[in-house]
Amino acid sequence: MHISLLALAGLTIFSSSSSSLLLLAQAQPQPCGGAAFAKVGNTFYIQGGATYADNLIQAFWALDLSSPWTTSSPAWSSISPPGPYNAFHSAGVASDGSSFITFGRDTAASTNQVAANWVNTFDISSKTWSAANPPQVADTSRRDFYAVSNLAGSKIYILGGNAGPAGAVSTNVLNTYDPSTGSMIETAMPASAPQNSSTYAAVWVKRSATMLLIGGVNAGNYPQSLWTYNPI
């Protein structure tokens, strides 16, 4: 079950008179759900996403946060190559700002669109993608989680998520990924962490060196809880 919705497409403005219709718009991302997003330096990136009936989008956009833009028409830039079709995946960041990395695969979509790999890395300098299926990841159909980047520790943490063709299987593992080496560790979920959690929101809190997690679904239940967890 997919809950999160991301609609970062800005607004298209129409003005009309009796004889004409004027379209004033800058290229914008398509409204969708389940796009992967992350801020790398002064740039905000979004990749993929899905429209109605889990139709996947193959798109990659960047927004420069260091320059002013109007809220009605953000200055998005389309990036090529766009990376694989994918949705309900999540993105992390290399600590040196060199790469934007997505994790997860939406296996509920049309089979000719499903991403082949669980980890997809965009090198910002060379503008190239690389991909991998780490053997440590037991189920590469996992998605509906949130990748949390610890920039100071050069680690990305991935907790729980859903799996299976329809995303109906709860998973209860914790992954630790090191972008500098490409190493992946997968362990059983610690007892102190939320169990069988998916579709939550999470962020790394630098001051306390902890993951902060809120909401989501825990094996079919909807907890009204706020969790902090120190994976170090």
From TrEMBL:
- Taxonomic superkingdom: Eukaryota
- Keyword tags: Signal
So which residues are the signal peptide here?
1-19
In its UniProt entry, what is this protein called?
Answer: Galactose oxidase
Q: What is the lineage of its organism?
A: Eukaryota, Fungi, Fungi incertae sedis, Mucoromycota, Mortierellomycotina
